[in-house]
Each structure stands twice: as structure tokens, then as C-alpha cells.
Input
Amino acid sequence: MKIAVVGGTGAVGRRVVEAVAGAGHEPVVLSRSGGVDLLTGAGLDEALAGAEAVVDVSNPANWQRLDEVERFFTEGTGHLVEAASRAGARHLVVLSIVGSDVVDLDYYLAKRRQEALVAAGPVPWTVLRATQFFEFASQVLAGATGPVAQVPPMLSQPVSTSDVAARLVELAVGEPQGLTAPIAGPERIRVVDMARQVVARRGDALRVEEAAEGLAGLSTGALCPRGEYVEGKGTFAGYLDTVRP
Output
């Protein structure tokens, strides 16, 4: 099967491309660097030609700008759905985020709109919501500018990008499921504790503190799955072994 991977050069996308090839299918990578622009639709028809399934793990270049995030997940998704329909794709699989239905942060609201556009479109679809990736703690720490890193009060159930990629490919080759069971890691852990373990592993002198205030719900499990979910195999401890001192 020919499977197009939108955002195939990103952290998750690369894993998906590997998983597609590992499962014996033909991956096609769609990315800005490869001449495909979701915001204009340029290059989509050519890249999707002959693809039976499309896996979308793309993200905007700047997550901090609300206008860019919203436009990416509305206009960009609209172009992708239309192009996938023209290409005759039988299945569109989109990666979303656990909490997109209840958390009112800008990024989550934009993902909520993306999910709605996919569900209303003409291509049979599946949406997989995932929890934060193991790399999330390092991304939070990257914003520290002094000796102390303030980490938002969040309870997470982080998951391996490899597990997410494998699940996306498993879904892509199967029948469309609509909103399917989310995927999460095997343990719940506070983001501040994840960050402290990363800092200890790297041997940094950075002090990590949990902020006193945050968005209601994030500290008590809004970012964790509710009900049934698919549990990833990878552990955060295993991920830490890959973090270089």
C-alpha cells in the first residue's frame, strides 16, 4: 500500500515513515522542504497521487502564534482533505492530542477545529488522540532563560513517539474508525518530575520548579485519557536512557 505521511520529516513523522516501511508498505513523505505547502495547497495533488491512505502528523512552524496555528489547522487541513478526496484516498488518519475536547488553550482549540473539519469531510477518517510525548519535558525546559525553570502544573501520561507511529500505521492500513481510542504511556507523572529527571540525566545545574498557577484541569488529569485507551510499551525511564548527559 502507498501511504502518504504529511509532516514526514518531523519528530513523529520520521517515526511514521519508518513504521510504514517496516510494515512492508511504500511511504511518501510530504513536507514543506519537499515542496508541499498545506497553507496554499501547492504540491498536494502531485504528492498524493496513488496514495491509498494518508497519515497527517503535521504541525505549524510556530506553535506560539495563535493566528498561525489556527490558520494551519483550518486552511491547511481543508486543503489536505480536498486533495485527498481528489486523489481517491480511502482513508485519512490524523494525529490529535488528548484533551483537545476539553482544554481551551489555543493549540487545543485549533486541534479541535481540525478534528471537526476532518469529520465533516468526504474522505473516510480516523482521529487518534495521543498524550504528550516523552520529549515534552525537554521542550518545556528549552524556554528557560535563567538558573530556574518554571514548569506548568500538569499531570501527564507521556507516550513514546515510536508507539504512536506504530499505532498510526496500524490504523492507516485498517478500516476507518472515526474517533478511535486514544494512546497513552503506561504511567502518570507530573511534568515537573519529568523535567527534573531530564535535568538530572543531563547533569545540568538548572533548578526546576512547578509554577503555582496553571489552567484549571491540567494539574488534575485533563491531559490524561478518560475511559479505554491503547497503552504504549515504552517507558519514560527507557527514554531517559537516550538523553545525553
Summary: The chain has a mean pLDDT of 94.
